[in-house]
């Protein structure tokens, strides 16, 4: 699956106040194959007044990628989010990110050693 939003997330990690990057991220995510999942979530974030938080938006996308089994892309998004959020959010996301890195590492190890899961 193509990840058109990743450059927006990387840009926001460097400049979290850039509203054009945030709009581009949301627009590209809503045009992606994950739009059915992300649309209602983004609407809920708007009701909670969290729709302007780059950290929250990037984290939500990362979580949806994780739920879709796209571990590498999920890690990339969550790592971008970690560069933005405050300490409490960072700790929360790190708790989510660590198991995915372990899963990805195990999967890559199995792939490189031609080991199949039982």
Q: What does this molecule look like?
A:
There is one protein chain. The chain is mainly alpha-helical and 118 residues long. The protein has one domain (6-112): Serine Threonine Protein Phosphatase 5, Tetratricopeptide repeat, CATH 1.25.40. Helix content is 73%, strand content 0%. The protein is built from six helices and no strands. Helix 1 (6-14) packs antiparallel against helix 2 (19-30), helix 1 (6-14) runs parallel beside helix 5 and helix 3 packs antiparallel against helix 4. The radius of gyration is 15 Å and the shape is globular. The model is unreliable at 106-111 (pLDDT under 50).
CATH classification, class level: Mainly Alpha
Which CATH architecture?
Alpha Horseshoe
**What is the tally of beta strands?**
0
| Fraction in helix | over 70%
Low-confidence stretches: 106-111
**Major pleated sheet:** none
Q: What is the first-to-last residue Cα distance?
A: 26 Å
Can you lay out the helices and strands and say which pair or pack?
Layout: H1 6-14, H2 19-30, H3 35-47, H4 54-67, H5 71-82, H6 87-112
